[in-house]
Amino acid sequence: MGETVSAFLRAPLNRRCFNAFFDECLRQTIYCLNSLRARGYRLPVVGETSAASLRDLAHGILGSLLRTERGKKPYHVVFDYFGSKGITDPRNTAAERLGNLMMGLLWSHSRQEIHRIKAQEDPQKANLKRRLGDLLRSPGYRTDGASDSPIEYICLASNSDNLRLDCPMLSYEGLQRLAENAYLETCNLSQLCAAIFVELNAMIEVQNRLRRHELVSTIVSVVLRYLDTDGFQTPAQSTPEGDFDAGTINRAREETIDWLTETVIREFVEKGRITKETGNRLALAADQYLIDLSTHGNTDPVPQYFREVMSECEHGKYLETYKYVFETIISRAVEEFRRRLQD
Amino acid sequence: MVHPTKDELNLFVGNKLADGEPARSIEAHIAECEFCRQYCDLYRQEQALQSEADAVEITETDRLMADRIYNQAMTGRVIPLNLMSAGQSLGQTHMAADGSGKTIRPTINLATLYSEDPEMVLRVMRDSEQDIDYLQLIGANPELTAHVLIQIPEIKKEYLTNDFGRAIVPKGELDDVETLHWEIKMPDVRFDLRPIVYDPEHVESVREVTLETDQHDRILVTFASKTAGKQILIRVLELDGETGFGSVRVSISQQQMQETKNVAPNQTVPFGYVDPDQGIDIRLYR
Questions:
Q1: Domain boundary among B167, B185, B203
Q2: Same domain, B215 and B264
Q3: Whether A68 contacts chain B with CB within 8 A
Protein backbone atom coordinates (compact mmCIF):
# COMPACT_ATOMS: atom_id res chain seq x y z
CA MET A 1 0.00 0.00 0.00
CA GLY A 2 2.74 2.47 1.02
CA GLU A 3 4.66 2.50 -2.27
CA THR A 4 1.43 2.85 -4.26
CA VAL A 5 0.27 5.78 -2.12
CA SER A 6 3.69 7.41 -2.37
CA ALA A 7 3.74 7.12 -6.18
CA PHE A 8 0.22 8.52 -6.40
CA LEU A 9 0.98 11.49 -4.16
CA ARG A 10 4.03 12.31 -6.25
CA ALA A 11 2.17 12.08 -9.58
CA PRO A 12 -1.59 12.20 -8.97
CA LEU A 13 -2.47 12.84 -12.61
CA ASN A 14 -0.32 10.02 -13.93
CA ARG A 15 -2.81 7.44 -15.13
CA ARG A 16 -0.79 4.36 -14.12
CA CYS A 17 -0.16 5.73 -10.64
CA PHE A 18 -3.82 6.67 -10.24
CA ASN A 19 -5.07 3.26 -11.43
CA ALA A 20 -2.80 1.40 -9.02
CA PHE A 21 -3.87 3.72 -6.20
CA PHE A 22 -7.56 3.33 -7.03
CA ASP A 23 -7.28 -0.48 -7.16
CA GLU A 24 -5.57 -0.56 -3.77
CA CYS A 25 -8.11 1.84 -2.26
CA LEU A 26 -10.97 -0.27 -3.62
CA ARG A 27 -9.58 -3.48 -2.10
CA GLN A 28 -8.96 -1.80 1.24
CA THR A 29 -12.42 -0.21 1.26
CA ILE A 30 -14.01 -3.61 0.60
CA TYR A 31 -11.91 -4.99 3.47
CA CYS A 32 -13.02 -2.13 5.69
CA LEU A 33 -16.71 -2.64 4.85
CA ASN A 34 -16.50 -6.40 5.43
CA SER A 35 -14.76 -5.72 8.71
CA LEU A 36 -17.41 -3.23 9.84
CA ARG A 37 -20.10 -5.74 8.91
CA ALA A 38 -18.32 -8.44 10.90
CA ARG A 39 -18.28 -6.05 13.86
CA GLY A 40 -22.05 -5.75 13.72
CA TYR A 41 -22.69 -2.68 11.56
CA ARG A 42 -25.72 -2.88 9.32
CA LEU A 43 -24.44 -1.79 5.93
CA PRO A 44 -26.77 -0.03 3.49
CA VAL A 45 -26.54 -2.76 0.85
CA VAL A 46 -29.22 -4.83 -0.82
CA GLY A 47 -28.86 -8.29 0.65
CA GLU A 48 -26.42 -8.67 3.48
CA THR A 49 -24.19 -11.03 1.49
CA SER A 50 -24.30 -9.37 -1.89
CA ALA A 51 -20.73 -8.80 -3.06
CA ALA A 52 -21.95 -6.59 -5.92
CA SER A 53 -23.83 -4.32 -3.54
CA LEU A 54 -20.82 -4.10 -1.28
CA ARG A 55 -18.74 -3.09 -4.28
CA ASP A 56 -21.31 -0.44 -5.19
CA LEU A 57 -21.06 0.92 -1.67
CA ALA A 58 -17.25 0.93 -1.93
CA HIS A 59 -17.57 2.86 -5.24
CA GLY A 60 -19.77 5.41 -3.51
CA ILE A 61 -17.28 5.85 -0.69
CA LEU A 62 -14.34 6.23 -3.08
CA GLY A 63 -16.32 8.55 -5.36
CA SER A 64 -16.70 10.86 -2.39
CA LEU A 65 -13.18 10.44 -0.98
CA LEU A 66 -11.38 10.87 -4.31
CA ARG A 67 -13.65 13.58 -5.69
CA THR A 68 -12.38 16.77 -7.27
CA GLU A 69 -14.72 19.70 -6.90
CA ARG A 70 -14.61 22.35 -9.59
CA GLY A 71 -11.96 24.99 -8.95
CA LYS A 72 -10.10 22.85 -6.41
CA LYS A 73 -6.89 20.89 -6.79
CA PRO A 74 -7.19 17.25 -7.90
CA TYR A 75 -8.30 14.80 -5.16
CA HIS A 76 -8.39 17.67 -2.65
CA VAL A 77 -9.86 15.57 0.19
CA VAL A 78 -6.85 13.24 0.10
CA PHE A 79 -4.28 16.00 -0.33
CA ASP A 80 -5.85 18.19 2.37
CA TYR A 81 -5.71 15.22 4.74
CA PHE A 82 -2.02 14.54 4.09
CA GLY A 83 -1.36 18.29 4.36
CA SER A 84 -3.03 18.32 7.78
CA LYS A 85 -0.57 15.59 8.82
CA GLY A 86 2.32 17.83 7.81
CA ILE A 87 3.06 15.97 4.58
CA THR A 88 3.55 18.39 1.73
CA ASP A 89 6.30 16.49 -0.10
CA PRO A 90 5.74 12.71 -0.01
CA ARG A 91 9.38 12.10 -0.96
CA ASN A 92 10.32 13.18 2.57
CA THR A 93 8.06 10.62 4.26
CA ALA A 94 8.52 6.85 4.53
CA ALA A 95 6.19 4.88 2.28
CA GLU A 96 5.02 2.78 5.23
CA ARG A 97 3.80 5.87 7.09
CA LEU A 98 2.00 7.11 3.97
CA GLY A 99 0.29 3.72 3.63
CA ASN A 100 -0.78 3.73 7.28
CA LEU A 101 -2.15 7.25 7.03
CA MET A 102 -4.08 6.34 3.89
CA MET A 103 -5.57 3.30 5.64
CA GLY A 104 -6.62 5.56 8.52
CA LEU A 105 -8.29 7.93 6.06
CA LEU A 106 -10.12 5.08 4.29
CA TRP A 107 -11.41 3.72 7.60
CA SER A 108 -12.59 7.02 8.95
CA HIS A 109 -14.16 8.06 5.64
CA SER A 110 -15.97 4.72 5.29
CA ARG A 111 -17.32 5.05 8.83
CA GLN A 112 -18.45 8.61 8.17
CA GLU A 113 -20.20 7.64 4.94
CA ILE A 114 -21.99 4.76 6.61
CA HIS A 115 -23.10 7.01 9.48
CA ARG A 116 -24.28 9.55 6.94
CA ILE A 117 -26.21 6.97 4.98
CA LYS A 118 -27.65 5.17 7.95
CA ALA A 119 -27.08 6.69 11.38
CA GLN A 120 -26.30 3.94 13.86
CA GLU A 121 -24.41 3.50 17.05
CA ASP A 122 -21.08 1.66 17.00
CA PRO A 123 -22.26 -1.94 17.70
CA GLN A 124 -19.10 -2.85 19.63
CA LYS A 125 -19.51 0.19 21.83
CA ALA A 126 -23.23 -0.46 22.30
CA ASN A 127 -22.50 -4.04 23.29
CA LEU A 128 -19.88 -2.95 25.83
CA LYS A 129 -22.25 -0.36 27.31
CA ARG A 130 -25.00 -2.95 27.60
CA ARG A 131 -22.69 -5.40 29.40
CA LEU A 132 -21.44 -2.65 31.69
CA GLY A 133 -25.00 -1.58 32.44
CA ASP A 134 -25.85 -5.16 33.48
CA LEU A 135 -22.73 -5.32 35.61
CA LEU A 136 -23.41 -2.03 37.41
CA ARG A 137 -26.96 -3.14 38.17
CA SER A 138 -25.66 -6.31 39.87
CA PRO A 139 -25.80 -6.56 43.69
CA GLY A 140 -22.12 -5.65 44.12
CA TYR A 141 -22.79 -2.03 43.09
CA ARG A 142 -25.18 0.65 44.23
CA THR A 143 -26.58 3.52 42.15
CA ASP A 144 -27.53 6.83 43.79
CA GLY A 145 -28.82 10.12 42.50
CA ALA A 146 -30.29 13.38 43.66
CA SER A 147 -33.95 14.11 42.97
CA ASP A 148 -33.12 17.42 41.24
CA SER A 149 -30.35 16.05 39.00
CA PRO A 150 -30.22 13.32 36.38
CA ILE A 151 -26.61 12.50 37.28
CA GLU A 152 -26.27 9.02 38.76
CA TYR A 153 -23.43 7.94 41.03
CA ILE A 154 -22.03 4.43 41.35
CA CYS A 155 -20.25 2.99 44.34
CA LEU A 156 -19.47 -0.45 45.70
CA ALA A 157 -22.49 -1.73 47.63
CA SER A 158 -20.13 -2.59 50.46
CA ASN A 159 -19.17 1.11 50.72
CA SER A 160 -22.66 2.54 50.55
CA ASP A 161 -22.70 3.38 54.25
CA ASN A 162 -19.19 4.68 54.19
CA LEU A 163 -19.11 7.28 51.39
CA ARG A 164 -16.63 10.15 51.59
CA LEU A 165 -19.12 12.74 50.43
CA ASP A 166 -17.14 15.66 51.83
CA CYS A 167 -14.22 14.95 49.52
CA PRO A 168 -14.01 16.16 45.92
CA MET A 169 -14.92 13.83 43.07
CA LEU A 170 -12.07 12.15 41.22
CA SER A 171 -11.34 14.18 38.08
CA TYR A 172 -12.11 12.66 34.69
CA GLU A 173 -8.43 12.47 33.75
CA GLY A 174 -7.72 10.81 37.11
CA LEU A 175 -10.42 8.26 36.34
CA GLN A 176 -8.88 7.63 32.90
CA ARG A 177 -5.48 6.89 34.48
CA LEU A 178 -7.13 4.64 37.04
CA ALA A 179 -8.95 2.67 34.35
CA GLU A 180 -5.79 2.32 32.22
CA ASN A 181 -3.87 0.85 35.15
CA ALA A 182 -6.74 -1.40 36.15
CA TYR A 183 -7.04 -2.73 32.60
CA LEU A 184 -3.44 -3.93 32.64
CA GLU A 185 -4.07 -6.02 35.72
CA THR A 186 -7.43 -7.61 34.94
CA CYS A 187 -8.90 -10.18 32.58
CA ASN A 188 -12.53 -9.17 32.06
CA LEU A 189 -15.05 -6.36 32.53
CA SER A 190 -16.18 -7.53 35.92
CA GLN A 191 -12.61 -7.61 37.29
CA LEU A 192 -11.82 -4.28 35.62
CA CYS A 193 -14.77 -2.54 37.27
CA ALA A 194 -13.97 -4.07 40.64
CA ALA A 195 -10.29 -3.08 40.37
CA ILE A 196 -11.23 0.54 39.62
CA PHE A 197 -13.34 0.74 42.77
CA VAL A 198 -10.76 -1.01 44.94
CA GLU A 199 -8.14 1.50 43.87
CA LEU A 200 -10.59 4.40 44.24
CA ASN A 201 -11.40 3.30 47.74
CA ALA A 202 -7.72 3.49 48.59
CA MET A 203 -7.50 7.11 47.35
CA ILE A 204 -8.76 8.69 50.54
CA GLU A 205 -8.44 12.28 49.28
CA VAL A 206 -11.34 11.80 46.80
CA GLN A 207 -14.88 10.43 46.99
CA ASN A 208 -15.23 6.66 46.74
CA ARG A 209 -18.05 6.90 44.19
CA LEU A 210 -18.05 7.86 40.50
CA ARG A 211 -20.40 9.57 38.09
CA ARG A 212 -22.01 6.74 36.14
CA HIS A 213 -21.68 8.29 32.68
CA GLU A 214 -18.00 9.10 33.25
CA LEU A 215 -17.24 5.58 34.44
CA VAL A 216 -19.01 3.98 31.46
CA SER A 217 -17.35 6.32 28.98
CA THR A 218 -13.87 5.71 30.41
CA ILE A 219 -14.14 1.93 30.46
CA VAL A 220 -15.59 1.81 26.95
CA SER A 221 -12.81 4.01 25.63
CA VAL A 222 -10.02 1.98 27.31
CA VAL A 223 -11.38 -1.42 26.26
CA LEU A 224 -12.06 -0.36 22.66
CA ARG A 225 -8.57 1.07 22.33
CA TYR A 226 -7.00 -2.20 23.41
CA LEU A 227 -9.31 -4.18 21.13
CA ASP A 228 -8.21 -2.16 18.10
CA THR A 229 -6.42 -4.71 15.94
CA ASP A 230 -4.39 -2.49 13.64
CA GLY A 231 -4.78 1.09 14.72
CA PHE A 232 -7.26 2.05 12.00
CA GLN A 233 -10.66 1.08 13.32
CA THR A 234 -11.33 2.91 16.54
CA PRO A 235 -9.40 6.19 16.58
CA ALA A 236 -11.66 8.09 14.27
CA GLN A 237 -10.97 11.46 12.80
CA SER A 238 -8.36 13.72 14.29
CA THR A 239 -10.13 16.42 16.26
CA PRO A 240 -9.16 19.92 17.31
CA GLU A 241 -9.14 18.57 20.88
CA GLY A 242 -6.20 16.29 20.09
CA ASP A 243 -3.70 19.08 20.75
CA PHE A 244 -4.67 19.69 24.40
CA ASP A 245 -3.86 17.87 27.62
CA ALA A 246 -6.57 16.02 29.52
CA GLY A 247 -6.73 18.58 32.34
CA THR A 248 -7.34 21.50 29.99
CA ILE A 249 -9.97 19.54 28.10
CA ASN A 250 -11.85 18.53 31.22
CA ARG A 251 -11.85 22.06 32.62
CA ALA A 252 -13.15 23.38 29.30
CA ARG A 253 -15.81 20.67 29.23
CA GLU A 254 -17.05 21.38 32.76
CA GLU A 255 -17.12 25.13 32.14
CA THR A 256 -18.97 24.57 28.88
CA ILE A 257 -21.68 22.48 30.53
CA ASP A 258 -22.12 25.13 33.28
CA TRP A 259 -22.37 27.84 30.63
CA LEU A 260 -24.80 25.72 28.59
CA THR A 261 -27.08 25.18 31.57
CA GLU A 262 -27.08 28.87 32.45
CA THR A 263 -27.70 30.19 28.94
CA VAL A 264 -28.99 27.95 26.14
CA ILE A 265 -30.87 25.42 28.28
CA ARG A 266 -32.22 28.09 30.63
CA GLU A 267 -33.64 29.98 27.65
CA PHE A 268 -35.44 26.88 26.40
CA VAL A 269 -36.84 26.28 29.90
CA GLU A 270 -37.99 29.91 30.24
CA LYS A 271 -39.70 29.75 26.87
CA GLY A 272 -41.54 26.61 27.99
CA ARG A 273 -39.95 24.42 25.29
CA ILE A 274 -38.66 21.93 27.90
CA THR A 275 -39.03 21.42 31.66
CA LYS A 276 -36.18 22.12 34.08
CA GLU A 277 -35.77 18.41 34.68
CA THR A 278 -35.49 17.71 30.95
CA GLY A 279 -32.98 20.57 30.72
CA ASN A 280 -30.80 18.86 33.33
CA ARG A 281 -31.00 15.59 31.43
CA LEU A 282 -30.06 17.24 28.14
CA ALA A 283 -27.10 18.93 29.86
CA LEU A 284 -25.96 15.48 30.96
CA ALA A 285 -26.34 14.21 27.38
CA ALA A 286 -24.29 17.16 26.11
CA ASP A 287 -21.60 16.35 28.68
CA GLN A 288 -21.53 12.77 27.42
CA TYR A 289 -21.23 14.01 23.84
CA LEU A 290 -18.29 16.26 24.72
CA ILE A 291 -16.56 13.41 26.57
CA ASP A 292 -16.78 11.20 23.46
CA LEU A 293 -15.70 14.06 21.23
CA SER A 294 -12.68 14.94 23.32
CA THR A 295 -11.64 11.38 24.28
CA HIS A 296 -11.56 9.73 20.85
CA GLY A 297 -13.50 11.95 18.44
CA ASN A 298 -15.75 9.03 17.58
CA THR A 299 -19.17 10.31 18.54
CA ASP A 300 -22.39 8.37 18.10
CA PRO A 301 -25.33 9.80 16.14
CA VAL A 302 -26.80 12.75 18.13
CA PRO A 303 -30.21 11.13 18.91
CA GLN A 304 -28.35 8.27 20.64
CA TYR A 305 -27.23 10.67 23.41
CA PHE A 306 -30.82 11.81 23.83
CA ARG A 307 -32.05 8.22 24.16
CA GLU A 308 -29.46 7.47 26.83
CA VAL A 309 -30.68 10.14 29.24
CA MET A 310 -34.41 10.27 28.55
CA SER A 311 -37.04 7.78 29.62
CA GLU A 312 -38.28 5.40 26.94
CA CYS A 313 -41.68 7.04 26.69
CA GLU A 314 -39.99 10.24 25.45
CA HIS A 315 -37.95 8.52 22.70
CA GLY A 316 -40.82 8.51 20.21
CA LYS A 317 -41.29 12.28 20.64
CA TYR A 318 -37.73 13.11 19.58
CA LEU A 319 -38.45 14.26 16.03
CA GLU A 320 -41.55 16.22 16.89
CA THR A 321 -40.64 17.78 20.22
CA TYR A 322 -36.95 17.59 21.02
CA LYS A 323 -34.94 17.44 17.79
CA TYR A 324 -34.48 21.20 17.32
CA VAL A 325 -33.84 21.85 21.02
CA PHE A 326 -31.35 19.02 21.44
CA GLU A 327 -29.46 19.64 18.20
CA THR A 328 -29.17 23.32 19.16
CA ILE A 329 -27.84 22.37 22.59
CA ILE A 330 -25.25 19.99 21.11
CA SER A 331 -24.07 22.37 18.41
CA ARG A 332 -23.81 25.32 20.84
CA ALA A 333 -21.97 23.07 23.32
CA VAL A 334 -19.41 21.99 20.71
CA GLU A 335 -18.95 25.57 19.53
CA GLU A 336 -18.44 26.88 23.09
CA PHE A 337 -16.19 23.97 24.06
CA ARG A 338 -13.87 24.63 21.11
CA ARG A 339 -13.91 28.37 21.81
CA ARG A 340 -12.88 27.77 25.40
CA LEU A 341 -10.07 25.46 24.32
CA GLN A 342 -8.73 28.11 21.98
CA ASP A 343 -8.79 30.83 24.68
CA MET B 1 -1.22 -10.23 35.46
CA VAL B 2 0.46 -8.57 32.51
CA HIS B 3 -1.17 -8.78 29.10
CA PRO B 4 1.03 -9.82 26.18
CA THR B 5 1.70 -6.99 23.73
CA LYS B 6 -0.39 -6.73 20.57
CA ASP B 7 2.68 -7.73 18.53
CA GLU B 8 3.03 -10.91 20.58
CA LEU B 9 -0.67 -11.70 20.23
CA ASN B 10 -0.50 -11.07 16.46
CA LEU B 11 2.45 -13.45 16.14
CA PHE B 12 0.62 -16.01 18.24
CA VAL B 13 -2.50 -15.84 16.06
CA GLY B 14 -0.36 -16.14 12.91
CA ASN B 15 1.47 -19.18 14.40
CA LYS B 16 4.68 -17.22 14.04
CA LEU B 17 5.87 -17.61 17.62
CA ALA B 18 8.63 -20.13 18.07
CA ASP B 19 7.47 -23.25 19.88
CA GLY B 20 8.34 -23.14 23.50
CA GLU B 21 7.77 -21.04 26.56
CA PRO B 22 6.45 -17.79 24.98
CA ALA B 23 3.78 -19.55 22.91
CA ARG B 24 2.72 -21.73 25.84
CA SER B 25 2.49 -18.82 28.25
CA ILE B 26 0.41 -16.77 25.79
CA GLU B 27 -1.86 -19.74 25.22
CA ALA B 28 -2.33 -20.08 28.97
CA HIS B 29 -2.97 -16.35 29.32
CA ILE B 30 -5.58 -16.35 26.57
CA ALA B 31 -7.42 -19.23 28.16
CA GLU B 32 -7.81 -17.07 31.24
CA CYS B 33 -8.09 -13.54 29.83
CA GLU B 34 -11.32 -12.49 28.13
CA PHE B 35 -9.79 -9.22 26.82
CA CYS B 36 -6.89 -10.92 25.02
CA ARG B 37 -9.10 -13.76 23.77
CA GLN B 38 -11.46 -11.23 22.25
CA TYR B 39 -8.53 -9.36 20.70
CA CYS B 40 -7.18 -12.59 19.13
CA ASP B 41 -10.61 -13.51 17.73
CA LEU B 42 -10.93 -10.07 16.17
CA TYR B 43 -7.41 -10.13 14.77
CA ARG B 44 -7.96 -13.60 13.26
CA GLN B 45 -11.16 -12.37 11.64
CA GLU B 46 -9.42 -9.23 10.30
CA GLN B 47 -6.61 -11.29 8.78
CA ALA B 48 -9.09 -13.51 6.95
CA LEU B 49 -10.99 -10.50 5.62
CA GLN B 50 -7.76 -8.81 4.53
CA SER B 51 -6.70 -11.91 2.54
CA GLU B 52 -10.13 -12.01 0.95
CA ALA B 53 -9.89 -8.33 -0.04
CA ASP B 54 -6.36 -8.74 -1.42
CA ALA B 55 -7.71 -11.34 -3.83
CA VAL B 56 -10.49 -9.07 -5.15
CA GLU B 57 -10.28 -8.87 -8.97
CA ILE B 58 -10.64 -5.45 -10.56
CA THR B 59 -13.61 -5.55 -12.94
CA GLU B 60 -14.70 -3.51 -15.94
CA THR B 61 -17.18 -1.64 -13.70
CA ASP B 62 -14.38 -0.75 -11.28
CA ARG B 63 -12.32 0.57 -14.18
CA LEU B 64 -15.27 2.73 -15.35
CA MET B 65 -15.53 4.14 -11.84
CA ALA B 66 -11.80 4.90 -11.84
CA ASP B 67 -12.20 6.59 -15.25
CA ARG B 68 -14.98 8.77 -13.90
CA ILE B 69 -12.95 9.88 -10.89
CA TYR B 70 -9.83 10.46 -12.98
CA ASN B 71 -11.70 12.48 -15.62
CA GLN B 72 -13.25 14.57 -12.88
CA ALA B 73 -9.75 15.35 -11.57
CA MET B 74 -8.61 16.33 -15.07
CA THR B 75 -11.58 18.58 -15.78
CA GLY B 76 -10.48 22.09 -16.68
CA ARG B 77 -6.81 21.39 -15.83
CA VAL B 78 -4.07 23.36 -17.55
CA ILE B 79 -1.02 21.16 -18.10
CA PRO B 80 2.25 22.93 -18.89
CA LEU B 81 4.56 21.24 -21.40
CA ASN B 82 8.35 21.10 -21.40
CA LEU B 83 10.56 20.96 -24.45
CA MET B 84 12.10 17.54 -24.96
CA SER B 85 13.80 18.05 -28.32
CA ALA B 86 13.67 20.30 -31.33
CA GLY B 87 14.14 19.90 -35.05
CA GLN B 88 14.45 16.16 -35.47
CA SER B 89 13.57 14.41 -38.65
CA LEU B 90 10.99 11.70 -38.21
CA GLY B 91 11.20 9.81 -41.44
CA GLN B 92 13.17 9.76 -44.63
CA THR B 93 12.05 8.31 -47.90
CA HIS B 94 14.62 7.24 -50.43
CA MET B 95 13.16 7.53 -53.91
CA ALA B 96 14.57 4.54 -55.89
CA ALA B 97 13.64 6.04 -59.21
CA ASP B 98 15.90 8.95 -58.51
CA GLY B 99 18.92 6.67 -58.62
CA SER B 100 21.13 9.49 -57.53
CA GLY B 101 20.33 8.81 -53.86
CA LYS B 102 18.24 11.97 -53.58
CA THR B 103 16.27 11.99 -50.37
CA ILE B 104 13.07 13.80 -49.50
CA ARG B 105 11.73 14.20 -45.99
CA PRO B 106 7.92 14.11 -46.12
CA THR B 107 7.43 14.51 -42.37
CA ILE B 108 9.59 16.63 -40.12
CA ASN B 109 9.33 16.76 -36.35
CA LEU B 110 9.71 20.45 -35.52
CA ALA B 111 9.66 19.89 -31.76
CA THR B 112 8.69 17.37 -29.11
CA LEU B 113 7.22 18.52 -25.82
CA TYR B 114 6.15 16.50 -22.82
CA SER B 115 4.45 16.46 -19.46
CA GLU B 116 5.35 13.98 -16.71
CA ASP B 117 2.16 14.28 -14.69
CA PRO B 118 0.07 13.27 -16.56
CA GLU B 119 2.37 11.51 -18.99
CA MET B 120 1.81 13.11 -22.38
CA VAL B 121 3.86 13.93 -25.43
CA LEU B 122 3.13 16.61 -28.00
CA ARG B 123 4.79 16.52 -31.37
CA VAL B 124 4.84 19.55 -33.61
CA MET B 125 4.99 18.16 -37.14
CA ARG B 126 5.45 19.45 -40.70
CA ASP B 127 4.10 17.31 -43.51
CA SER B 128 5.85 18.50 -46.64
CA GLU B 129 3.91 16.22 -48.97
CA GLN B 130 0.55 17.58 -47.88
CA ASP B 131 2.04 20.96 -47.16
CA ILE B 132 0.56 21.26 -43.66
CA ASP B 133 1.77 21.64 -40.09
CA TYR B 134 -0.01 19.68 -37.41
CA LEU B 135 0.15 18.83 -33.71
CA GLN B 136 -0.02 15.25 -32.52
CA LEU B 137 -0.85 14.68 -28.87
CA ILE B 138 -0.03 11.26 -27.42
CA GLY B 139 -1.19 10.04 -24.02
CA ALA B 140 -2.19 6.95 -22.09
CA ASN B 141 -5.87 7.61 -22.51
CA PRO B 142 -7.91 9.03 -25.45
CA GLU B 143 -9.78 11.21 -22.93
CA LEU B 144 -6.52 13.06 -22.37
CA THR B 145 -5.77 13.69 -26.03
CA ALA B 146 -9.10 13.98 -27.87
CA HIS B 147 -10.94 17.31 -27.96
CA VAL B 148 -8.48 19.21 -25.82
CA LEU B 149 -7.08 22.66 -26.44
CA ILE B 150 -3.38 23.05 -27.11
CA GLN B 151 -2.56 26.60 -26.16
CA ILE B 152 0.33 29.00 -26.65
CA PRO B 153 -0.78 31.91 -24.46
CA GLU B 154 2.09 34.28 -25.37
CA ILE B 155 1.01 34.43 -29.03
CA LYS B 156 -2.69 33.86 -28.19
CA LYS B 157 -2.99 30.74 -30.31
CA GLU B 158 -4.95 27.63 -29.50
CA TYR B 159 -5.70 24.48 -31.42
CA LEU B 160 -8.38 21.91 -30.75
CA THR B 161 -7.47 18.25 -31.20
CA ASN B 162 -9.74 15.79 -32.98
CA ASP B 163 -10.74 12.25 -31.96
CA PHE B 164 -7.19 11.09 -32.68
CA GLY B 165 -5.39 13.82 -30.75
CA ARG B 166 -4.42 15.68 -33.90
CA ALA B 167 -4.86 19.39 -34.65
CA ILE B 168 -4.09 21.07 -37.95
CA VAL B 169 -2.11 24.31 -37.78
CA PRO B 170 -2.51 26.84 -40.59
CA LYS B 171 0.75 27.02 -42.54
CA GLY B 172 3.13 29.71 -41.38
CA GLU B 173 1.43 30.24 -38.06
CA LEU B 174 4.21 28.68 -35.99
CA ASP B 175 7.77 29.93 -35.99
CA ASP B 176 10.46 29.13 -33.44
CA VAL B 177 8.23 26.48 -31.87
CA GLU B 178 10.87 25.50 -29.34
CA THR B 179 10.98 28.97 -27.79
CA LEU B 180 7.23 29.12 -27.11
CA HIS B 181 5.50 28.07 -23.89
CA TRP B 182 2.97 25.38 -24.64
CA GLU B 183 0.20 24.07 -22.47
CA ILE B 184 -2.81 21.81 -22.69
CA LYS B 185 -6.22 22.89 -21.48
CA MET B 186 -8.64 20.07 -20.65
CA PRO B 187 -12.37 20.66 -21.22
CA ASP B 188 -14.30 22.19 -18.33
CA VAL B 189 -17.55 20.49 -19.28
CA ARG B 190 -18.24 17.33 -21.28
CA PHE B 191 -21.45 16.14 -22.89
CA ASP B 192 -21.69 13.03 -25.02
CA LEU B 193 -24.62 12.39 -27.32
CA ARG B 194 -24.95 8.76 -28.26
CA PRO B 195 -26.19 7.65 -31.71
CA ILE B 196 -29.78 6.82 -30.81
CA VAL B 197 -30.46 10.45 -30.00
CA TYR B 198 -30.81 11.91 -33.45
CA ASP B 199 -31.67 10.67 -36.92
CA PRO B 200 -32.19 13.67 -39.20
CA GLU B 201 -33.99 11.53 -41.79
CA HIS B 202 -36.79 10.89 -39.37
CA VAL B 203 -37.16 14.15 -37.50
CA GLU B 204 -40.20 15.87 -38.94
CA SER B 205 -40.23 18.86 -36.64
CA VAL B 206 -37.73 20.55 -34.38
CA ARG B 207 -37.03 18.73 -31.12
CA GLU B 208 -35.12 19.94 -28.14
CA VAL B 209 -33.43 18.37 -25.16
CA THR B 210 -31.66 19.97 -22.20
CA LEU B 211 -28.55 18.27 -20.83
CA GLU B 212 -27.15 19.01 -17.38
CA THR B 213 -24.02 18.04 -15.44
CA ASP B 214 -23.69 17.47 -11.69
CA GLN B 215 -22.14 20.93 -11.44
CA HIS B 216 -25.25 22.61 -12.88
CA ASP B 217 -23.90 23.26 -16.37
CA ARG B 218 -26.81 23.16 -18.80
CA ILE B 219 -26.99 23.15 -22.58
CA LEU B 220 -29.95 23.08 -24.92
CA VAL B 221 -29.57 20.76 -27.91
CA THR B 222 -31.94 21.42 -30.78
CA PHE B 223 -32.36 18.66 -33.34
CA ALA B 224 -33.35 20.30 -36.58
CA SER B 225 -35.67 18.53 -39.00
CA LYS B 226 -34.49 17.24 -42.38
CA THR B 227 -35.90 20.30 -44.14
CA ALA B 228 -34.09 22.59 -41.71
CA GLY B 229 -30.75 21.23 -42.80
CA LYS B 230 -29.86 18.06 -40.85
CA GLN B 231 -28.11 19.84 -38.08
CA ILE B 232 -28.04 20.23 -34.36
CA LEU B 233 -27.83 23.57 -32.58
CA ILE B 234 -26.15 23.96 -29.21
CA ARG B 235 -26.97 26.77 -26.82
CA VAL B 236 -25.23 27.08 -23.45
CA LEU B 237 -27.86 27.96 -20.85
CA GLU B 238 -25.87 27.91 -17.60
CA LEU B 239 -22.36 27.29 -16.30
CA ASP B 240 -22.02 26.51 -12.61
CA GLY B 241 -25.70 27.42 -12.33
CA GLU B 242 -25.00 30.95 -13.63
CA THR B 243 -26.67 32.32 -16.75
CA GLY B 244 -24.35 35.32 -17.00
CA PHE B 245 -21.16 33.39 -17.65
CA GLY B 246 -19.47 35.82 -20.05
CA SER B 247 -18.19 33.75 -22.93
CA VAL B 248 -17.31 30.12 -23.38
CA ARG B 249 -15.67 28.15 -26.13
CA VAL B 250 -17.88 25.37 -27.49
CA SER B 251 -16.50 22.47 -29.46
CA ILE B 252 -18.75 19.95 -31.20
CA SER B 253 -17.27 17.00 -32.98
CA GLN B 254 -18.22 13.78 -34.66
CA GLN B 255 -15.43 11.62 -36.00
CA GLN B 256 -13.36 13.90 -38.30
CA MET B 257 -15.88 16.72 -38.31
CA GLN B 258 -15.37 19.47 -35.81
CA GLU B 259 -16.96 22.82 -35.10
CA THR B 260 -15.68 25.27 -32.53
CA LYS B 261 -16.87 28.73 -31.57
CA ASN B 262 -16.68 31.23 -28.73
CA VAL B 263 -20.20 32.06 -27.64
CA ALA B 264 -21.95 34.42 -25.24
CA PRO B 265 -25.13 33.43 -23.36
CA ASN B 266 -28.04 32.73 -25.73
CA GLN B 267 -25.82 32.38 -28.82
CA THR B 268 -26.06 29.08 -30.65
CA VAL B 269 -23.49 26.91 -32.37
CA PRO B 270 -24.76 24.95 -35.38
CA PHE B 271 -23.27 21.60 -36.29
CA GLY B 272 -24.14 20.05 -39.65
CA TYR B 273 -23.34 16.85 -41.54
CA VAL B 274 -24.64 14.70 -38.72
CA ASP B 275 -24.08 10.95 -39.09
CA PRO B 276 -26.90 9.20 -37.16
CA ASP B 277 -24.71 6.17 -36.51
CA GLN B 278 -21.99 8.02 -34.63
CA GLY B 279 -21.86 9.77 -31.27
CA ILE B 280 -21.37 13.51 -30.93
CA ASP B 281 -18.95 14.97 -28.38
CA ILE B 282 -19.65 18.41 -26.96
CA ARG B 283 -16.95 20.12 -24.91
CA LEU B 284 -16.93 23.52 -23.21
CA TYR B 285 -13.76 25.47 -22.33
CA ARG B 286 -13.84 28.53 -20.08
A1: B185
A2: yes
A3: yes
